[in-house]
Amino acid sequence: MLAHCVAALRCFSMRRGVPAPVGSWAMRSVQSTIALVVMGFVVACGGATPPPAEPDPAEAEAAAPADKSGGEAAEDGGGKDGKREDGAAAEASKQIPTTCEQKDNMCLPPAAFVKRLCSGYYPDVALTLFAKGSPFTRGYLTRDTEAWNASGGSSSNDKLLFDEEVLILYRRVADTGGMVVSGAGGGYDVLRWDGTCASLMTEEVRLHVPPKPKFAPIPWKSLDQKTREAFQADEKVGPLIAERRKECKGATMGAVSAKCEKVDKQMGAALIEYVRSGGALPAPGALP
């Protein structure tokens, strides 16, 4: 810019016939103009709006824990609700089921309950499951069958008999890898009246009720005291229990009299009839 101004002044002087010296008043005028322009830029920069101030790190740290604590509180609240729901579900699963899972047109107890039931021995629970009004599907043996429990729990030494009534607990499906295999029809886990579980082949069970179903004997000595008291209080069952105690003198196996064997069978049939007809039973003490 200075060069252009000097050139212009020289051109003006030459037209007038007088060259303009560099140190003349014209140069001083140009230098003054340049100074004013520079001062104008400085003033303009100094008067510009300053950039927004950065937040104070201390204030940011103070706000951050509050947000974090709020988030953690929300998460903790959700966690507590989740634990409460899980606890309620776990507690409900420990109760004796009254509703069933439908599978292949059969009413079955929940699988988790069945697993615990067949891993132990719960004769009082068996009576509740077989009681009148229980929704679970009954099955009946098509032949005499050896008792074994695929779940690994207790099993009876007594064979399952033709026409014996059982409670169907679980439907086992044969895994053939997609191949059609003759005779691979799966099977069932069932509950007997004596409280033991048994594993059967599909062809060993039918759902049709026979004219005179049979029953595994109820293990009197293994029942809870409250359950035995409920039986003894019945006007029909109570006398048979007293007579059995008198004739058998506490023994039901080995060298017993014919009278003992007879009254023992009568008492067993009376116990089953009491349960099937809706006789009152206390809540079992031990649960799966």
Automatic annotation (TrEMBL):
Residues 50-96 are annotated as: Disordered. Residues 77-87 have a biased composition (Basic and acidic residues). Residues 60-72 have a biased composition (Low complexity). This is Uncharacterized protein.
